[in-house]
Every structure is written in C-alpha cells, then in structure tokens.
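Predict the 3D structure for this chain.
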Amino acid sequence: MAHILIVDDERSICELLEITFRKEGHRVEIAMNGEQARRKFESSIFDIVISDIRMPDTTGVELLQFCKEISPNSYFLLITGLPTLETAIAAINSGADRYVIKDHELVDQLRRAVRQVDETLKLKDEAGYLRRELRRLTGLDNIIGHSAGMRAVFDMIMTIAPQSSRVLITGETGTGKELVARAIHENSSRSLKPFITINCGAFPETLLESELFGYVKGAFTGANENREGLFKAANGGTLFLDEIGNMSQTMQVKLFRVLQEGKVRPVGSNEETDIDVRVITATNKDLEKAIAAGEFREDLFYRLSVIPIHLPALRERREDIPLLARSFLERFRKTMEKPVEGISPEAMTLLEAYEWPGNVRELENTMERSVALETGPMISAAVLPEKIRNPGRREASEDAVFENGSAHIPEAGIDLEKHIQDLEKAYILSALKTCDGVGTRAAELLKMSYRSFRHYSKKYSIR
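Done. Predicted structure below.
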C-alpha cells in the first residue's frame, strides 16, 4: 500500500485523514507545518502527499515545489478551505495532481483520489520492474546519482559503449570506477563475451606478467602446466586493469607492446597469439604528474586514455548523498531483515555535511554499520560514527589549543584559513543538532542573522 504524508496546521484534519487511510492499510505520517514536512521529506520517500494550501509558515504550492525537487515521482494532492480561481490555477501550474475543496465530501474525494493513485502506482511498479531488469542487464543499476557530474558520466557511458576505443577512468578510491567499466562493457557489442578484472597493484611484477599473458609449462619453478593469461581469457570481451598507475616500468613496456601489436606472448614461449580485447583502465593517481616524475610512460598513457572519464568525488556531488544513503539503507534493511524505514533529518544533515574521504564506498560501509546498530524505525545520528557526528573535533584538537585567550600553534604550523572554516562548519552543525535541524533557531543560538546563517550553510554545503 501507499506511503502517505498529510500536511495541515489543523490537527483535527490530520487525525481524521490519518485514521481514514490507516484503516485502508496505508502507511501514514503527519506534519503540522511546512518545516516538519520538509524534514520528513528529506529522510523518507512518500508515494502521496496531501497538503493544505494555506499554512502559517508556508503555502502548499511552495511545499509542492520543494518536494518535487527531492522526489519528483510523488503524487501531490492539495486541499483548501478557501477555494479561489487563482489558487486553483497556481496549484495546477505547479504540478499538483489533484485540487480538493475542504467540505463535507473531503474524505470521500480524497479516498477516491488515493485509490486511483494506488492503482497507478501498481502499474508503475510493474513497469518499474521491467525498467530495473533492463538497467540491471545494461550495467547501470548500481551507479546512482542525479547530479550534473553523474549525468555527464551516464551520457558518456552510453555514447562510448558501442565503440571499441580504450577508456581511462580516473577518480579517487571508492568512487565506483569498476562499476563504470562494467557498464561500458554491458552496453557494448561485447556484452555476451567475458568481462575480466585485475588489480595491477595487488600483484608483484613477475606474477602480474604471468596473470596477464599466461605461461607455458616449465617457464619457471612451479609452472607444471600451460596456463592461459587474462588477455586470452577476455578475448572478444573486455579486460579491466584497475590501479594501472601502480604498474612497474617493466610491465608498462610489455603492456604497451601488446596494445600496439594486438598480440600476446605467454611467459616462456616464443609464439604470439592474436587477441581482440577492449582494454579499460582505471587509477586514483594523477598520471600526468607521474609522467613528469618519470614514473609512468607517456606513450602508454596516450594509448590508454583515448577516451578519459573522470568520476567526481562524493563531496563534489553532495546532492547525490540522500539518494545513495536511502539506496544503501533499502539494501541493508532487507538483507538484515530489520524494520528501519528511513533516515532522521539530523542524521541526514550530518551525512550531507561530511567530507567522505572514502567516497561512495565509505558511505556504503557507514549505512551498513548504521542499519546493524539502529534499534528504532529511523537511522539516528547516535549510530553514526564519531567522525561524522563531530567532524570538527579532531581538526581543532590537532591544529591548535586555546589557553587563557592565546592559541598554541603546533611545530608543523597551521593552515589558519582551513582551521577557521572547520570551526565555523563544526559550530553550524552543532547548532543544527541542538535545534533539531531548525535553521532559524540555530541562527539565534549562534547570535547571527538567519541570512548570514544561510550564507554559511550554503558555503559549507549544509542543508
């Protein structure tokens, strides 16, 4: 059944509609004002929102516009006790799915509207299942994001997948480089052939050579039989070389020769074999700097980076954090069979403000930990790691200590500008935590204008 949010400053209306729709089997939550509704929307996904048009702190149309940005697929039903032509036009133009007048037929009209939406949701679920299967088959299902940076990555994947050009994927550790490589393979004409991965930094040079190119019996001690290498095993398909920046100079020369000639020679053999393999590589290093330092071959770099793709760090696409967090929450609550249905506004604020040095992988681990520890229906701030709950504590303690009005500066020196920014960010987060996420109260606590508070919140990407 549907997950419904009812927003109205009249408690009697909220309670009446809550009882009505709970009896019909729906999950129902209520909010008495726009601020409460916004916080609920940031922590949960609702199928249907029923909102009054006129409320003390906002209008239903403003709330609709806010909610559509977060959850564009939610259905929005606006209700009013003072119907006018202007409000009706504004409601429809803003994207409301139904406009209902508060009269003696209000409950019956809303019940019929919700039933119609429920039928539509069932049809969408069926269509969504087919789309999800298609995305799973095309390899895009595990790449989540709606930020401009990720939309550009999606477009690039679909553009270059049909080609056989080599691709170099760059980005910090944990950004999902292997997922992108797999998506390119799954959307190519090679999708029915093997997709084979190897981490170049996980093998010593001699072992990496035999893994990639294979070997013949007697090539070295322990080579008791012929073994085909990964290039041969991936023939017709795709070979993904992760952490290519960790490959030794000697192996770089050998890889360059294979890419140039399209042939591999097993270790200990004099015979070469033709191969047809699309090579996709990835690294978290700046290869151009490595070239300048003499650590990476320039000719190999240009062979590998015919088409470069850069994956942005998670801190550079913070608008994707709620989407990713809810996706991980859904996965882990199912595997752990725990009734954790959402993320509290306070916890979401902390997740969005954290720098995520480990990127998406760190967020995934954090959500797994949080679901495992949470005993309530919502992920709370209390189950988040200390470094997320108090991001400014470590920096402040390590960089400087204030005693009797003076600051102690460590021998290594201090980045004063960054230290001040860390303190500002930490105080804003702490004030929001104290004030349950209400910005106006947090601004008062910090003795600053709400306009200034909004400026600093925007500066540090704090919602």
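The radius of gyration is 28 Å.
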